[in-house]
């Protein structure tokens, strides 16, 4: 559960903005989407390896964005 400390004189829009930012940082929505379907550990590791290779190629300059 997210708790937002708001002052009495603080605007409700500012408090809502703080809540949204804190919600994004907690990554609860990403976790819910991940849990909707099961991915095998071998598929997860393969995706991580491919992602690491891609990042390394970008860093070395082989791929330009």
From TrEMBL:
Belongs to the bacterial ribosomal protein bS21 family. Keywords: Ribonucleoprotein, Ribosomal protein. The keyword Ligase does not apply. The keyword Chaperone does not apply. InterPro entries: Ribosomal_bS21, Ribosomal_bS21_sf. One of its GO terms (biological process) is translation. NCBIfam families: S21p. The gene is rpsU. This is Small ribosomal subunit protein bS21. GO terms for molecular function: structural constituent of ribosome. One of its GO terms (cellular component) is ribonucleoprotein complex. It comes from the Bacteria.
